[in-house]
Amino acid sequence: MNQMVIEHLDPAVWRVTPPGKVRSIVAIFTHMHNMRVKWVRLTAPHLKVPRQLKKADCTPEQARAGLAESAARCEEMLAEALGGGGRVEKFHRDGWARPWPVGVEMLCYMVAHEAHHRGQICMLAHQMGFPLPVAVMAGIWNWEKLWRESGAPEKVAGKQKRRGLKSSVIMKSRRKKLRGRDEK
After folding, report:
1. For residue 56, which of 18, 21, 72, 165 sits 20 to 30 Å off, Cα-Cα?
2. Residue 40: is it exposed, middle or buried by C-beta count within 10 angstroms (0-12/13-18/19+)?
3. pLDDT for 8-42, tens place per residue?
4. Domain count, the chain
5. Is residue 92 in some structural domain?
6. What is the pTM of this model?
7. What domain range includes position 181?
8. 134 and 158 share a domain?
9. Burial of 139 (0-12, 13-18, 19+ CB in 10 A)
């Protein structure tokens, strides 16, 4: 999703400093990457820790490369943490915070952090006169397509698709039953 947003962001908005005490878009993307780096460094130091990005000279291309690398390390860290048998036993969000046991909370925290900042970026771009295309804004919510495009096994993506179809059939059936009650 971050890759899609950067790809379609107008380059003119990359370094614009918004009014007030607000981070620029480049500062937000570098923060997202650097937090991932911190999570890997503190939680799974046995993994290759990516280099941090500096907001002062980070280009969109460097941000895309850095985010791709930090995403790969986070994926490895999560696989060890959630798959069991790995060396990851506690999630260290930051040096000042108490470590958490690994589990769904770890994943939820990471997803919430990313989504929060991606929302900030989309809002800032819009407020500064550089809105992202509607296809991109809608595209970051098309998780099935993103899942397939990321190289996920077709079998898994297919199950999700069938499950979605099944649930829509169930919902239609429920709507019919409700309409039947209203007519009586």
Report:
1. 72
2. buried
3. 999 999 999 999 999 999 999 999 999 999 999 99
4. 2
5. yes
6. 0.79
7. 154-184
8. no
9. middle
